[in-house]
Amino acid sequence: MAQRKKNIPFKGIGIITAIAASLCCITPVLAFVAGIGSLAAMFSWMEPLRPYIISLTILALSFAWYQKIRSSKSIECNCETDTKNSFWQSKMFLGTVTIFAVLMVSFPYYAKYFYPNIPEKSEAVEPHNLVSKEFIAIGMTCTGCEEHIKQAVSKLPGISSIEADYKTGKVVVKYDKTKLTGEKIGRTINSTGYKVKE
Fold first, then answer.
1. For residue 80, is it within any domain?
2. Across-strand partners of 163?
3. Same domain, 54 and 149
4. Under DSSP, is residue 139 helix (H, G, I), strand (E, B) or coil?
5. Within-domain flag for 105
6. Rounded CA separation 8/117 (Å)
């Protein structure tokens, strides 16, 4: 019985650390869905800690599985016991926690699929009015961050195309200079919670 009670904290640690490992990437999606874009970069400071948090998640869940497997292989006695394991003590629950942790840790790799596709622009731009400007956005940590910025900027009038790369922090926008200014695009990027480097 004491063995079962020890197992619960490691499951909890596994869940908490898995969520913490992906918090920097979940926040932009939640901010987009809730319509409060300025919160998107709130947890970007956690990105450098991500490998350590993922390691802690793996260690906590490995130890929980070790305890669960070891307790099921313990010496069986011929005593009669009517104690059934609760769901919280079962391998099913530990398996569910493990799957949840894997989904949370891998969230940055599929975050972009939570954003709607940006519709193609059909308005024609005179070639002499087309301007390409590069911005450096501080705080992008995953593809979800890229999509968050793309969604916000694509709503502006006169946007021809937008590309964002979280690895370099670059956001390249092509736009019609008669309908839009670079300052307006910079303010829009800032409104998402990421900051344009001046």
1. no
2. 172
3. no
4. coil
5. yes
6. 41
End-to-end, the C-alpha distance of the chain in Å comes to 60
Per residue in 29-78, pLDDT tens?
Answer: 666 666 555 555 666 677 777 888 888 888 888 888 888 888 766 555 55
Same domain, 127 and 52: no
Torsion of CA 190, 139, 115, 143, to 10 degrees: 140
Amino acid 50 reads R
Residue 96: name the closest of 84, 108, 104 by CA. 104
Asked if residue 141 lies in contact with residue 42, where contact means CB atoms within 8 angstroms, the answer is no
Same domain for 100 and 181, yes or no, is no
Gap between the Cα atoms of 106 and 58, Å rounded: 13
What are the strands of the beta sheet with 130-138, ordered from one edge? 159-165, 170-176, 130-138, 195-196
Task: Give the tens place of pLDDT for each residue, 130-152.
Answer: 999 999 999 888 888 888 899 89
CB 185 within 8 A of CB 153: yes
Task: Please tell me the distance from the alpha carbon of residue 19 to that of residue 104, in angstroms, as a whole number.
Answer: 6
Q: Could you tell me the residue range of the domain that residue 150 belongs to?
A: 115-196
